[in-house]
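Figure 6 in text form: structure in, sequence out.
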């Protein structure tokens, strides 16, 4: 005689039922049986409200019905011919959520009326409902979880980034956070708007069960590896930063450990990471597309669709100083002869001390500037016989050279004073899209449109490590303040964190549902931006132990967890080594 047990969320009541149809309700504290009910049929599944006054019973012959424990009254919810999976009831007993094939049923428990049929996931899937019955979560084999408004049936957010089927969902006791268990061995926690707050790695196999502590401070997970792990779930994990101006983000740059600069169509802003406050804001009619920031955030270097400019915030009123020179002959349709016009400046950089600037224009020229005097000090013009063109630029380790990536995948170092080439390295198969020198000047990170990242020795541009696991086009790269971590932005919804010493993947953050194209370190935080305009700040600590060198691919079980204390390493699965 098989028996199953269900414990209500408050831990006060135990439901014990036998497959043959007998249901017993016990008080957990005393062990006393409160009531015995006969379902009159073989039971496949049973759940109830918080007080165990209303039950939802799935039987072999009669489908799913609601049972009033006090009166014994039954109300049919779904017919037996409807194939169903996971069933959940809100704690107040008003709403029942049932996972069907390709659809999620939302049923009014009091009337039996079908409120919504949500087109959620292919096939059978899993579901959850928040304690207050206001939100529903669904997740399936399509590796996606979804948040829904229970009253209207409106889709609130799609939670992408899972690398395996969703196996379990549960809301925290306040209904503010959703935890997901996945076939990739990871546990993730999302906020009420679908923002990823934490990602924990530690299971070497699928995670099948999750449970919150009553105070919501801890989350327990059980997996197919026969382990139960307890994760910290309290404390701030991520926060959204406010921003004035346009909703779209074109570029993101770090100023210092507590400030970042943001470029959007028509404006630029400087944001304080700790508070989310907008410290500076200035309208730029020429539509900014690239940005760099001086330490202290008192000057911004802006590349736009028409030329470049230097923004000075040291005065009472911000001053914009044009940086002339990036011009070319432009012929516009139906506009007569060619005209000499300012051209786009797709990349800019500032030296570590903020005293020098470099701009790269669509005219092929690279211009170096004295940022204090707003004066050009050197220009590199493209050779007429050169079929390649410059695509990205950064200052070299000492500030007296510049590094230039080009369309052929090469990185070239030039002396600023003489304009002479110092060294050249052919690295990537396609264009170099970003270059970043490490804080100590010993390494250079080079990212390409061929989806590879090379970590180079700055002294000779020789390759030390390569990262070839990105599946989406890369768009940005940045070093942590201690030079031990890298963060890459791409067209993927997640920005990925890598260990420089081993090129191993050690973290991932998701600022939103669309591309996490920009990500930078700011002190002990990572600030990441999506194309759609969401800017999020995440904790980004590091561990002090020296981990084994490992090479991880993105669809494997990753050796990290991004928790309240920052990025913490866990042992990867045997199959991933």
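Output sequence:
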């Amino acid at each position: 005689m098989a028996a199953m047990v269900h414990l209500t969320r408050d831990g006060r009541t135990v439901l014990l039922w036998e497959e043959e149809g007998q249901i017993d309700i016990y008080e957990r504290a005393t062990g006393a049986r409160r009531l015995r009910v006969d379902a009159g049929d073989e039971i496949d599944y049973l759940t109830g409200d918080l007080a165990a006054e209303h039950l939802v019973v799935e039987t072999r012959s009669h489908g799913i019905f609601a049972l009033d424990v006090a009166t014994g009254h039954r109300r049919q919810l779904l017919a037996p011919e409807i194939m169903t999976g996971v069933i959940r009831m809100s704690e107040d007993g008003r709403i029942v959520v049932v996972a069907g094939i390709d659809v999620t049923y939302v049923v009014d428990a009091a009337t039996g009326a079908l409120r919504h049929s949500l087109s959620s996931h292919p096939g059978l899937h899993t579901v959850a409902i928040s304690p207050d019955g206001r939100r529903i979560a669904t997740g399936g084999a399509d590796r996606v979880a979804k948040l829904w408004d229970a009253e209207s049936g409106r889709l609130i957010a799609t939670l992408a980034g899972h690398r395996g089927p969703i196996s379990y969902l549960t809301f925290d006791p306040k209904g503010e956070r959703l935890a997901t268990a996945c076939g990739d061995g990871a546990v993730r926690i999302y906020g009420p708007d679908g923002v990823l707050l934490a990602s924990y790695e530690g299971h070497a196999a699928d995670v099948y069960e999750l449970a919150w502590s009553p105070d919501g401070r801890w989350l327990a997970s059980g997996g197919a590896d026969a382990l139960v792990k307890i994760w910290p779930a309290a404390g701030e994990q991520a926060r959204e930063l406010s921003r004035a101006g346009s909703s779209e983000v074109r570029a993101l740059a770090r100023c210092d450990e507590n400030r970042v600069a943001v470029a959007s169509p028509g404006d630029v802003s400087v944001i304080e990471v700790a508070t989310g406050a907008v410290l500076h804001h200035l309208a730029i009619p020429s539509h900014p597309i690239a940005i760099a920031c001086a330490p202290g955030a008192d000057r911004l270097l802006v590349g736009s669709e028409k030329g470049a400019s230097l923004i000075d915030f040291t005065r009472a009123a911000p001053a914009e100083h044009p940086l002339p020179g990036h011009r070319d002959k432009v012929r516009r349709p139906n506009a007569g002869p060619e005209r000499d016009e300012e051209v786009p400046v797709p990349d800019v950089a500032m030296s570590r001390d903020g005293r020098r600037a470099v701009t790269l224009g669509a005219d092929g020229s690279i211009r170096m500037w004295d940022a204090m005097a707003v004066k050009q000090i050197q220009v590199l013009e493209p050779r007429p016989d050169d079929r390649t063109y410059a695509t990205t630029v950064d200052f070299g380790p000492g500030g007296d050279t510049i590094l230039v990536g080009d369309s052929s995948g090469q990185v070239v170092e030039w002396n600023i004073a003489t304009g002479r080439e110092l060294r050249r390295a052919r690295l990537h198969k396609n264009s170099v899209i970003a270059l970043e020198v490490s804080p100590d000047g010993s390494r250079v990170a080079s990212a390409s449109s061929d989806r590879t990242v090379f970590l180079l020795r700055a002294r000779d541009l020789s390759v030390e490590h390569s990262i070839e696991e990105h599946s989406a086009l890369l768009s940005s790269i940045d070093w942590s303040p201690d030079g031990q971590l890298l963060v890459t932005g791409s067209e993927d919804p997640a920005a990925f964190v890598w260990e420089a010493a081993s090129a191993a993947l050690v973290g991932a953050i998701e600022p939103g549902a669309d591309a996490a194209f920009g990500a930078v370190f700011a002190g002990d935080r990572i600030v990441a931006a999506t194309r759609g305009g969401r800017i999020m700040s995440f904790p980004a600590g590091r561990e002090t132990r020296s981990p084994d060198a490992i090479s991880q691919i993105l669809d494997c079980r990753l050796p990290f967890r991004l928790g309240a204390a920052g990025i913490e390493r866990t042992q990867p699965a045997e199959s991933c080594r």
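Caption detail: The two ends are 44 Å apart (CA to CA).
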